[in-house]
Structure formats: structure tokens, C-alpha cells
Specification:
Elements: H1 2-49, E1 51-53, E2 58-60, H2 63-70, H3 72-104, H4 108-119, H5 126-144, H6 152-176, H7 180-188, H8 193-204, H9 206-221, H10 225-230, H11 240-250, H12 254-280, H13 283-305
Antiparallel strand pairs: 1-2
Length: 306
């Protein structure tokens, strides 16, 4: 009997091991593709950041980073890029949340139509859309005498216009998954719409908020086309993405361009880490909301049965 039991255990173990090996084997092509397209280029950028060249040799150095830190223009460009990205993200979040909430609470047919209307502009090339707004701002300036191109407003407007759908979609997906019973329970417990928003909607939609912030902040901080076309050639709007492009394609200095890219990547990773910490601080609150809503819903059912 013992021999039979041991055989069964071995068979079960072998079955799990084979299943795990098969899963790992089937995922190997995706890991290789990820390494070739994402990890390998990033490794080269890191290596280039710590290298420089003289007339006859290539050597390791930290001069690229010291050059970036000690040059006020580079630091100012990085700071302005992060500032514009932050303002763009905040505006997108303020505009996107009510839109996403309305879509998430709509009927299925209306929801599909609204999502299509939001995503349709994304089918057109981004450069064409930015050039269209460049022409519109130019016409407004000629009609009213108010200069829009080459201003902070034009840059932030362009970023909000381009990246707003990237905030709406994850928010809408997150809000749509919230069980309507939570809203009913909150209402039965006497909470008004404002309390329901802060106690139910906002905590339970936090994953969508985090995803939206990440999807907007990262591309906004590294944007090249928007400040280039809506900045009207003003050197004031040479942001960090434009600097990296200039050293890679115009200055023929891959080493310093890589150093700027590494500094920007570390800054963005730190920002993502802080945002994720914000999400973790709401885990307890979300679990509380679920218990609170479940308790209230059960009480409401008891009251109805009476």
C-alpha cells in the first residue's frame, strides 16, 4: 500500500513538473523576443552611458553624467520635461475621470459607441494631428492677434490632446468592473454621492488611476514631436526628449545621449515606484470598502425581507 501511495505521489509530482516545464518552454520565444527588443537595447544604452571615445580609443568614464549634472541647461530641460508631464497628467486625470465614469456606468451599446469615438482620433498619425493643431493655432493668432504657438499653453494642450485617451481607457475599464451592489449598499447606509465617490468609486478604481498615470506621464516626459512642432522653434521648449534626439542623430554623440537617457529612465522609474507605493497605501482601504459594502448590502437585504 505504501509503495502504491509513493508511486501516486511521484506521478503527481512528475505531472506538475512536466506541466511547468511545458509552460516555460512555450514562453521561451516570448522571453527571447522581450530580451532582443527591450532588454538588449537598454543594456547597450547603459554601456554607452559609461563610455566615451578619444581620437584612437574608447574608454570607461563618468564624465557623461558629470557633464549632464553640471550643465544648468540640461538640468533645466529635464526639470521642465517632468513639470510639463506632471501638469499634463493631472489635467488628463481631472478630465478623464468623469468621462470614464459616465462611460463605465452607461449601457453596453452606448458604452461601445463612446469608446469608439474616443479611440477614433488615435487611428490618425500623431504627427498629422499635431500639425493640424499647429495650423489651427496659427489661424487663431492671425484672427485675434493672440500668440498661442511657442507658449506653455500650446505644449500642454498638445500633450493633453494626444494622451487623454490613454488615461480614459484604463479608468473606464477599472470603473466598469466595480460591482453596482457597492453603490447600492453605500446609498442604503445613508452616504451621499460625494461620500460614495471617496469611499467606493475612488478606492476601487485606483488600479485604473495608477495605470493611466503611468501611460500618460512616461510618454509626456519623453515627448519629442509635440514641443518640436508646437514650440514654434523656441529654444525654451527644447525638452529632454529633444536633447536625446539631438545627440543621437545630429550631434553624433551616442555616449552623452545615452547618459541623458539613463538619467531620465532612473527618474521615471523612481516616479513609477512612488506611484505604486500610493496604490499600496490604498490596499487596506479597498478591502475595507469591500467589507463595508458587503455588510451594508446584506443589511439592506435583511431590511427588505422584514
Amino acid at each position: 500500500m505504501a509503495f502504491h501511495v509513493n508511486n501516486i505521489k511521484k506521478q503527481k509530482t512528475n505531472g506538475k513538473g512536466f506541466k511547468a516545464n511545458a509552460t516555460l518552454f512555450s514562453a521561451t520565444p516570448y522571453f527571447l523576443l522581450l530580451m532582443i527588443l527591450v532588454l538588449l537595447p537598454f543594456i547597450f544604452i547603459i554601456l554607452y552611458a559609461f563610455m566615451s571615445k578619444s581620437a584612437s580609443k574608447i574608454y570607461l568614464t563618468l564624465d557623461n553624467f558629470s557633464k549632464f549634472v553640471t550643465n544648468g541647461n540640461f538640468v533645466a530641460a529635464a526639470g521642465k520635461s517632468l513639470l510639463f508631464a506632471f501638469v499634463t497628467t493631472v489635467i488628463c486625470l481631472i478630465l478623464a475621470y468623469p468621462i470614464a465614469y459616465f462611460i463605465g456606468r452607461s449601457k453596453a451599446k452606448v458604452r461601445s459607441l463612446l469608446v469608439t469615438l474616443i479611440t477614433v482620433p488615435m487611428w490618425i498619425n500623431m504627427l498629422l494631428r499635431i500639425l493640424a493643431w499647429q495650423q489651427i493655432f496659427g489661424m487663431i493668432s492671425s484672427w485675434t492677434g493672440i500668440t498661442l504657438l511657442g507658449t506653455d499653453f500650446a505644449i500642454i494642450f498638445g500633450m493633453v490632446y494626444i494622451f487623454l485617451p490613454f488615461m480614459i481607457i484604463p479608468l473606464y475599464t477599472s470603473i466598469m468592473k466595480i460591482d453596482p451592489a457597492f453603490y447600492e449598499a453605500s446609498k442604503d447606509l445613508g452616504a451621499d454621492s460625494v461620500e460614495t465617490f471617496f469611499k467606493v468609486s475612488l478606492p476601487l478604481s485606483m488600479p485604473g488611476i495608477i495605470s493611466g498615470i503611468t501611460m500618460v506621464f512616461l510618454p509626456a516626459a519623453t515627448s519629442i514631436i509635440i514641443p518640436q512642432e508646437l514650440g514654434d522653434g523656441n529654444s525654451k521648449y527644447i525638452l529632454i526628449g529633444n536633447l536625446i534626439e539631438s545627440y543621437f542623430y545630429k550631434g553624433d554623440d551616442y555616449y552623452f545621449g545615452s547618459a541623458i537617457a539613463v538619467v531620465l529612465s532612473l527618474t521615471l522609474l523612481l516616479s513609477i515606484y512612488l506611484v505604486n507605493k500610493l496604490d499600496r497605501t490604498n490596499v487596506k482601504d479597498r478591502s475595507f470598502v469591500k467589507k463595508y459594502a458587503k455588510f451594508g448590502y446584506e443589511k439592506a437585504l435583511e431590511g427588505g425581507n422584514r
